[in-house]
Specification:
This protein is mostly helical. The chain has one helix and no strands. The longest helix is centred in the middle third of the chain and has 42 residues, at 2-43.
């Protein structure tokens, strides 16, 4: 019984670690995409008097 509890604990901690790694990777990917979008917006020509909603 004790070994089962220990094995479950190890398994749960491994799953938690994997989830934390996945979240960290997704956050990094989101930061990278955000920077790429910001760079693309900076490359746009200046406004010509018309409004452009880039946040929608």
């Amino acid at each position: 019984m004790n070994m089962e509890i220990a094995a479950m604990s190890v398994s749960m901690n491994s799953a938690r670690l994997a989830q934390n790694v996945d979240v960290a990777i997704l956050k990094k990917a989101m930061d990278t995409e955000s920077a790429a979008a910001e760079t693309m917006l900076e490359m746009l020509p200046p406004p010509s008097g018309h409004l452009l909603d880039v946040l929608a």
